[in-house]
């Protein structure tokens, strides 16, 4: 053990552990707690999640199940600690106040009408995803699939069926994050197509069609095109309505690694 | 139209499947560090040399070294990582549980993985992590919540995670794992919390466990009788530094941590195997081939978690496969790494606890140097004559370079009681009276004779490791924030820069587009240098 700095750390660690949870389930229930929860939500959460939990850059809260867990304890911990790697910060509030916020947030789910639900056949949809639609070439489910498109392992808790339908029929309407398309021609005349992993004033970093991560100096390129479109084809022309609904049903059934194994 | 599009998509699917270019093979790991452009293992090669064949930066031009790019994060913990570099991408861990892929030429971020950690992580000495292992298209990490995880190296996506054990009992993962063949190996930290240490090997594809080796033997196993009563259950013997590996012998050399409670040995009478030892394990089975204990029944917290440096040299007229390691207890040891035979031990810092080392390699203790209620001053200090920071070995100069710590601690003994997940130390030391005697230095030793060839004084005790290069340089860091290039033959300082915060990591180097870059972590930043 390296004790030199550990004494100082011992002083720091308890500070990191403040507002520790003392309940497994929400102890708050009164109308006053609910109103205070609404007020705290408006101050701390609404700007990203919207006052109905439906809009903004934050995750959609108006749903029946959540990616990081559905228990009171899991949601408390998430609100308290935030979600690493996202814009969701931790809220260093008193324990009771976090429970009050959760009391308010829980009402979103009760009112949520939008869920991932489709009438199609899940098994048939899996066949479309795996072979007919070539979705696996670019999307991952569990351990399988490509890297050019978003991971679909949690599609059933991340998207509504309508969002999935829209994305399949009109993929270029909304292209997010690192899935922006890039087409460029190098000084040597090589044509490269892929998605943008990062970009600054001088360089652009691309995952090409073969999933190689490549770096280019912008000044050295013959051309650089960032069309506001998705690499994904529109599936309205490619799949029958029945196949589309089956595919959506399959995607709605994906709730994470365990479900994938269960299939 | 429909058919055409489908065909195009199928073609792209095939291209994806064939996109194996850039995957790291086991042969690549065996060839590292001969393939000098990459850095594929924590030590820059299985032998633990931390020596690079790159020589673009050398004695004649190192004074022109300048910053190329820096990476900064809000790192409140110690930044102890050694990056890996492959295929133009650098992979680092950032405490407590993040992994970044950076463009190795510019430092631009390509992806980030953030592990969601429990609120009450248990780690004696900071929520640290020292890096990754790589094979195929996968990165491997040991996590503070005691998992081994595999990530896709191109996206950072979690591919599998395997629980080692319940972290709330005091276990954690802080070391960069080791990949051998198709296995990834890790061990557990937590030697201050009454753990029972172990080493696990997992299938790289599935995360399934292949074998486990307990660093404290169970009832009926060899060495269990070196622990009195039930003390073997809570005796520590943690693992927190990447081992070395000899592919010919198929042996992995693990340095094992201190026995617990650290400073009160009364509840664990006996030698306490395999604490403070090196254990040589068969890579395929995890079976122990041999072991050597540096400090039997340690009561000063002198883990043997130093790097095991594997050297093939002549000793007494015979070419031998040697294992050389500068130990925290103040002696440099030389063993035959095929058999574990003890060959030699030489004092390399001031020490007052041993009269010497016997012909069998056992310390001959000076009486009265054990911790006591009143306190006893002993050299070296609790952090040892050296510690986890990497040494370097240059085949060019034939010298072993070690970051040394000179100083003493006053060791106190106290009562202790085992409670799961809490400190199991047996008192605490107090340093104030002895701090003024501390200093640090880089020393070069002849590995066989252990003769000191040169010393470069770094003023404060060192926590930074060393990098040796074919450019005739040794890169070293200091607690005062200076990063330096030393002449590998003389120790003369050829270049230095103040990075503004303590350096608590070991440097590495790589090449991209024909340029050599030298990297070290300092404070919350990673600093990358090259010639103009």
3D structure, described in words:
The complex is a heterodimer of chains A (263) and B (532). By secondary structure, chain A is α+β, with helices and mostly antiparallel strands. Chain A folds into three domains: 16-111, Orthogonal Bundle (Cytochrome Bc1 Complex, Chain D, domain 2); 122-171 and 235-262, Cytochrome c-like domain (Cytochrome Bc1 Complex, Chain D, domain 2); 177-225, SH3 type barrels, CATH 2.30.30. Chain A is 37% helix and 12% strand. Chain A has helices spanning 6-16, 31-44, 46-49, 72-81, 95-111, 122-132, 155-158, 161-169, 241-252, 257-262, and strands at 140-141, 144-145, 181-185, 191-199, 203-208, 213-217, 223-225. In chain A, a hairpin with a 3-residue loop joins strand 4 and strand 5 (203-208). Chain A is globular and about 70 Å long. Chain A starts with 5 loop residues before the first helix and ends with a helix. Helices cover 4% and strands 36% of the residues of chain B. Chain B is built from two helices and 37 strands. A five-stranded mixed β-sheet of chain B has the order 1-31-32-33-34, with no helix packed on it. A four-stranded antiparallel β-sheet of chain B has the order 2-37-36-35, with no helix packed on it. In chain B, strands 3-4-5-6 form a four-stranded antiparallel β-sheet, with no helix packed on it. Chain B has one domain: Quinoprotein alcohol dehydrogenase-like superfamily (Methanol Dehydrogenase, Chain A, 8 Propeller). The longest helix of chain B is centred in the N-terminal third of the chain and has 17 residues, at 2-18. By secondary structure, chain B is mostly beta strands. The interface between A and B is large, with 46 and 61 residues.
């Amino acid at each position: 053990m390296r004790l030199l700095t550990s004494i100082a750390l011992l002083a720091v660690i308890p500070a990191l552990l403040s507002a520790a949870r003392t309940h497994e389930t929400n102890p708050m229930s009164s109308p006053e707690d609910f109103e205070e929860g609404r007020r705290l939500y408006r101050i701390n959460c609404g700007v990203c999640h919207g006052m109905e939990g439906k809009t903004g850059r934050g995750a959609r809260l108006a749903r029946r199940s959540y990616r990081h867990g559905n228990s009171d304890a899991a949601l408390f911990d998430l609100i308290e600690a935030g979600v690493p790697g996202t814009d969701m910060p931790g809220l260093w509030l008193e324990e009771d106040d976090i429970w009050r916020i959760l009391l308010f947030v829980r009402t979103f789910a009760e009112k949520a009408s939008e869920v991932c639900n489709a009438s199609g056949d899940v098994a048939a949809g899996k066949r479309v995803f795996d072979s007919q639609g070539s979705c696996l070439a670019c999307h991952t489910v569990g351990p399988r699939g490509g890297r050019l498109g978003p991971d679909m392992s949690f599609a059933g808790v991340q998207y509504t069926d309508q969002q999935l339908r829209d994305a399949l029929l009109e993929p270029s309407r909304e292209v997010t994050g690192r899935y922006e398309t890039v087409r460029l021609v190098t000084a040597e005349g090589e044509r490269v197509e892929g998605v943008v992993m990062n970009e600054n004033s001088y360089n652009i970093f691309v995952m090409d069609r073969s999933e190689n991560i490549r770096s280019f100096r912008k000044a050295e390129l013959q051309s650089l095109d960032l069309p506001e479109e998705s690499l994904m084809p529109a599936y309205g022309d490619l799949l029958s309505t029945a196949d589309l609904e089956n595919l959506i049903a399959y995607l709605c059934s994906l709730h994470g690694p365990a479900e994938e194994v269960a299939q | 139209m429909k058919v055409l599009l489908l065909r195009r998509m199928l073609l792209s699917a095939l291209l994806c499947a064939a996109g194996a270019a850039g995957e790291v093979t086991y042969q690549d790991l065996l060839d590292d560090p001969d393939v000098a452009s990459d850095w594929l293992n924590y030590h820059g090669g299985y032998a633990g040399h931390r020596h690079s064949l790159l020589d673009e930066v050398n004695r004649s031009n190192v004074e022109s070294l300048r910053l190329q790019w820096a990476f900064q994060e809000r790192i409140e913990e110690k930044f102890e990582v050694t990056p890996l570099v492959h295929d133009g991408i650098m992979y680092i861990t950032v405490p407590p549980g993040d992994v970044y892929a950076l463009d190795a030429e510019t430092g631009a971020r390509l992806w980030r993985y953030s592990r969601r950690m429990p609120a009450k992580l248990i780690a004696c000495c900071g929520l640290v992590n020292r890096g990754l292992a790589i094979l195929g298209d996968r990165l491997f990490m040991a996590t503070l919540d005691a998992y081994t995880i595999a990530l896709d190296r191109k996206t950072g996506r979690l591919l599998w995670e395997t629980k080692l054990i319940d972290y709330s009992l005091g276990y954690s993962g802080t070391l960069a794992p080791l990949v051998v063949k198709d296995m990834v190996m890790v061990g557990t930290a937590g030697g201050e919390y009454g753990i029972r240490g172990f080493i696990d090997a997992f299938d790289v594809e599935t995360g399934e466990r292949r074998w486990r080796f307990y660093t404290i033997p169970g009832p009926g196993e060899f060495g269990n009788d070196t622990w009195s009563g039930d003390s073997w259950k809570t005796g520590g013997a943690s693992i927190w530094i990447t081992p070395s590996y000899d592919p010919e012998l198929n042996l992995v050399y693990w340095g094992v941590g201190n026995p617990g409670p650290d400073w009160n040995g009364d509840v664990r009478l006996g030698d306490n195997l395999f604490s403070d030892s090196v254990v040589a394990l068969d890579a395929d089975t995890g079976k122990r081939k041999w072991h050597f204990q540096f400090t039997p029944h340690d009561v000063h917290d002198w883990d043997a978690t130093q790097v095991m440096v594997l050297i093939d040299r002549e000793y007494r007229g015979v070419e031998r496969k040697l294992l050389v390691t500068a130990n925290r207890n103040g002696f440099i040891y030389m063993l035959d790494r095929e058999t574990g035979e003890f060959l030699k031990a030489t004092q390399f810092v001031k020490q007052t606890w041993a009269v010497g080392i016997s012909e069998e390699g056992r310390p001959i203790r000076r009486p009265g140097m054990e911790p006591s209620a009143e306190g006893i001053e002993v050299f070296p200090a609790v952090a040892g004559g050296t510690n986890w920071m990497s040494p370097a070995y240059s085949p060019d100069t034939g010298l072993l370079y070690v970051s040394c710590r000179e100083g003493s601690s006053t060791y106190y003994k106290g009562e202790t009681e085992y409670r799961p997940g809490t400190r199991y130390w047996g008192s605490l030391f107090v340093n104030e009276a002895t701090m003024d005697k501390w200093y640090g230095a880089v020393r070069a030793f002849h590995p066989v004779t252990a003769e000191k060839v040169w010393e470069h004084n770094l003023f404060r005790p060192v926590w930074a490791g060393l990098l040796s290069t074919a450019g005739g340089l040794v890169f070293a860091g200091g607690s005062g924030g200076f990063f330096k290039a030393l002449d590998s033959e003389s120790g003369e300082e050829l270049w230095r820069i103040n990075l503004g915060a303590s350096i608590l990591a070991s440097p590495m180097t790589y090449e991209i587009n024909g340029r050599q870059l030298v990297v070290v972590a300092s404070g919350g930043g990673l600093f990358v240098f090259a010639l103009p």
